[in-house]
């Protein structure tokens, strides 16, 4: 499937699938304290970063997840994904992260909107969900700005470094006006 398009219908310069030559960027991201926990297995070498990118490609082929690098002037500075693609109920799970130097530019909100439109138009999904830690108001602003409505708090949902965190769940429907 093609990468998400911009509102004007032209291929967007904001998102593209991760490529093997992005491995050095992925390795650097994995070394950032707040972002390293985004990965299910450690990325501690270029080979591990290349393997992770290959896994992202395989998930796309398997129709289970669609992951895109978020670009700023052509350079990957973040990530946005629609995963847990479930065809029976036409649902998916959206997640995103941005490198520190790219935060505060509105890129995460734009990327979240673009991947949502991709999921509705290209994947035929109807409902997208996401959650953020309650102590992360910036992520909440991204979710709201991308048209995701709050649906409730899940107590002690996440565990990081021995500490449990509450999350707020949001959802966006294909029929929502954004």
Automatic annotation (TrEMBL):
Residues covered by the N-acetyltransferase domain: 13-166
UniProt xrefs under InterPro entries: Acyl_CoA_acyltransferase, GNAT_dom, N-acetyltransferase
UniProt KW Transferase keyword: yes
Keywords (A to Z) from UniProt: Acyltransferase, Transferase
Superkingdom in the source lineage: Bacteria
Family listed: Belongs to the acetyltransferase family. RimJ subfamily.
Protein name as it appears in the record: GNAT family N-acetyltransferase
């Amino acid at each position: 499937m093609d990468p998400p398009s911009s509102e004007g219908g032209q291929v967007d310069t904001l998102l593209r699938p991760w490529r093997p030559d992005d491995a050095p960027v992925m390795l650097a991201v994995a070394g950032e304290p707040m972002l390293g926990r985004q990965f299910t297995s450690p990325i501690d070498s270029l080979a591990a970063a290349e393997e992770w990118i290959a896994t992202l490609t395989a998930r796309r082929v398997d129709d289970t997840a669609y992951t895109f690098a978020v670009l700023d002037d052509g350079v990957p500075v973040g990530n946005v994904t629609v995963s847990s693609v479930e065809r029976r109920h036409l649902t998916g799970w959206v997640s995103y992260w941005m490198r520190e130097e790219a935060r505060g530019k509105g890129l995460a909100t734009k990327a979240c909107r673009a991947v949502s439109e991709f999921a509705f138009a290209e994947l035929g999904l109807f409902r997208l969900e996401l959650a953020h830690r309650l102590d992360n108001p910036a992520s909440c602003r991204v979710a709201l700005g991308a048209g995701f409505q709050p649906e409730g708090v899940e107590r002690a949902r996440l565990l990081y470094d021995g500490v449990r965190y509450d999350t707020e769940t949001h959802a966006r429907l294909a029929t929502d006006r954004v």
